[in-house]
Design brief:
With 62 residues, the chain is mainly β. 10% of the residues lie in helices and 27% in strands. It contains one helix and five strands. Strands 1, 2, 3, 4 and 5 form a five-stranded antiparallel beta sheet that branches. It is globular and about 25 Å long. It starts with 9 loop residues before the first helix and ends with a strand. 19% of the residues are buried.
């Protein structure tokens, strides 16, 4: 987990979807990321705020 990682509000996680696929996201607490398995992207969470920009996301190996 990054030093500036803060927990993500569970209510927020219930409503957030991947901006590309509109599919569900799962929270990777260890990495501090929201993962879209369908898109193969991991969106960073900085200071408890999800950065839902595809150009800021990390490509994940599938």
């Amino acid at each position: 987990m990054t030093d500036n990682a803060a927990p993500v509000d569970p209510k927020l996680l219930e409503i957030l979807v991947c901006p590309l696929t509109k599919g569900p996201l799962r929270y990777d607490r260890e990495r501090g990321e929201l993962v879209s398995d369908k898109a193969g992207l991991a969106y960073p969470v900085r200071d408890g705020i999800p950065i839902m920009l595809p150009d800021q996301a990390r490509k994940i190996e599938g």
